[in-house]
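WARN no homologs supplied; continuing
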Amino acid sequence: MKMKNNTRKATIDDLSQLAQLFDEYRMFYHKTSDISGAEQFISERLESKDSEIFVVDEEGKLGGFVQLYPLFSSTRMKRYWLLNDLYVNPEFRGKAYSKALIEEAKELCRTSNSCGMYLETGKENMIGNQLYPSAGFKKYDEVNFYEWEVES
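OK structure emitted
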């Protein structure tokens, strides 16, 4: 697969390194480390093709990823993507890889004839809250966001 800006689509061969990055990402959001769970989750996503994952690859070492899930906009009658996960390992930061991964996500939107993508990030995520507007995302304050969770 052709790489641009050291980014490319993830494959099952990336599973071990990608699971490690995914585990780091989850720990960033205050979850307990679970490498085997991360590996199973990412393996399921890759095998079932129910998400799109792009990675940063520096000579065989993965340094970051973005994962998108397909949604649909009924009012626009088109696919819409949820940019659910974006993470770059601290060793790889400062090289514009976050923006390169976002560009891969934008290209996915274009090639899949979608109407765009949606994301959310915590108010305390200062880096993300500077990154996303600089990458062309607009903060959307016109609706209330609600969540319902199944009780465990």
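The chain has one domain: 7-121.
OK
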